[in-house]
Every structure is written in structure tokens, then in C-alpha cells.
Backbone:
């Protein structure tokens, strides 16, 4: 009797594990695509925060003014891109390690 129950439980658990693995693979692929697209936007936005090459002279003129700061809007956009990047990576890690408990049966 117990061997039959064990077989049924093992079969059901294997089916559920295979289903979770398939869902996990699809989810990780979409997260990877999102991260690639986000990085494509993040690199130019981060480069906009740097001063232009002409303002970073290496001369010995001590009276030159420091380069101007980037606009606050550029800093905010860059911060949001970095936040989205960090949250997507955390989502991928947590989603990969979290057990699924949404099945009511």
C-alpha cells in the first residue's frame, strides 16, 4: 500500500518539478533580455555624467575651474537605470532560489 502511495507522490512531485523548471528557464531568459536592453541604455547615460574630454586638461594651470556637474535630471535617470538593473538581478537570484507555493492542491 505505501509503495503505491510513494509512487504516486513521486510521480506528481516530478511532474511539478519539471513544470517549475520550465517556467524558471523562461523567466530567466526574459530577465536576461531585459538586463541586456537596460545595459544598452545605461552605458550612454553613465557616460553623460562624465565631463567632456576637453574640460579635463592635464596642464599645470592651477587656477582652472573644476568641470561642471552634470544636470540633476541625468543623475536621476542614471540612478533609476541602476536601480532597475539591481532589482532585476535580485529578482533573478531570488526567483531561482525561491520555492513555488502558489499551487492550492
Residues:
Amino acid at each position: 500500500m505505501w509503495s503505491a502511495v510513494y509512487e504516486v507522490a513521486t510521480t506528481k512531485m516530478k511532474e511539478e518539478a519539471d513544470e517549475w523548471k520550465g517556467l524558471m528557464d523562461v523567466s530567466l531568459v526574459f530577465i536576461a533580455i531585459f538586463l541586456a536592453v537596460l545595459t544598452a541604455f545605461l552605458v550612454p547615460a553613465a557616460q553623460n555624467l562624465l565631463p567632456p574630454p576637453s574640460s579635463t586638461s592635464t596642464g599645470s594651470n592651477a587656477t582652472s575651474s573644476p568641470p561642471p556637474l552634470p544636470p540633476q535630471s541625468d543623475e536621476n535617470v542614471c540612478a533609476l537605470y541602476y536601480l532597475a538593473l539591481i532589482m532585476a538581478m535580485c529578482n533573478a537570484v531570488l526567483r531561482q532560489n525561491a520555492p513555488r507555493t502558489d499551487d492550492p492542491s
Observations:
- Residues 17-50+69-99 form one domain.
- The chain has two helices and no strands.
- Helices lie at 2-47, 72-97.
